[in-house]
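quick one before i forget lol
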Amino acid sequence: MIGPLAVAVYVLSLALAAWAFAEFFRHREPTRPLFQGLGVVGLLVLAQVVALGIGLARGQGPEEGGEVVTLVGYMLTAVLLPPAGAVLARMEPTRWGSLLIGSAAVIVPVLILRLGQIWNG
């Protein structure tokens, strides 16, 4: 687990969520910068998951087999959530699209936190 990268994901994702929720409450549809922000968060998450995958391949991480399966499930969910949020927001080009981006951005730090908990035992 890369600590500074995890902190960057927490900060950027929560800032993006606050911005997206503000846009939702202002009755504004998602704009290109919101989608770009979600893309940046998605790339940071991808980097963290790749680092975890490399560590897992080297024999690091959780010892129990069940924990490894849980870790891989969280890794897949964390990687797929930002693109899924972007696709759903594109399908809903109203203020609700901003809410979808904000919701995805709030869930990402929880997934990264949980990845760290599983990784460290």
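fyi The radius of gyration is 15 Å.
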